[in-house]
Fold this sequence. Notes:
The protein is an alpha/beta fold and 140 residues long. The chain has 2 helices and 8 strands. Strands 1-4-3-2 form a 4-stranded mixed sheet, covered by helices on one side. A hairpin with a 5-residue loop joins β7 (119-124) and β8.
Amino acid sequence: xxxxxxxxxxxxxxxxxxxxxxxxxxxxxxxxxxxxxxxxxxxxxxxxxxxxxxxxxxxxxxxxxxxxxxxxxxxxxxxxxxxxxxxxxxxxxxxxxxxxxxxxxxxxxxxxxxxxxxxxxxxxxxxxxxxxxxxxxxxx
Length: 140
């Protein structure tokens, strides 16, 4: 069994994938636009003029696979009650990625030493997606 996040960027998926390529080295494994679908979408599901938006994509970050789409293409993505936790091997890498992901976003907790990590911080990126940046401490 496997659980994979499916992110709805509501019209900004391609922009998000480009951002994650640059900031965290994401690799797009698959991407299909609405106009490339072998079956027509249900009436009213996609606004007229959204043919080039992303119907479905799969991308990898390190060893993890995530999926994303533009869904209704309204540009109003909301990611409430969820954050992605990114575990990194060292503090320098954590700082670099924290700053890159935070570009145009909002820091919720600056990178700092905690009882469980020598380097931990939280932010929402420019798309509103929450991230927790984590370097494991001696106890894992």
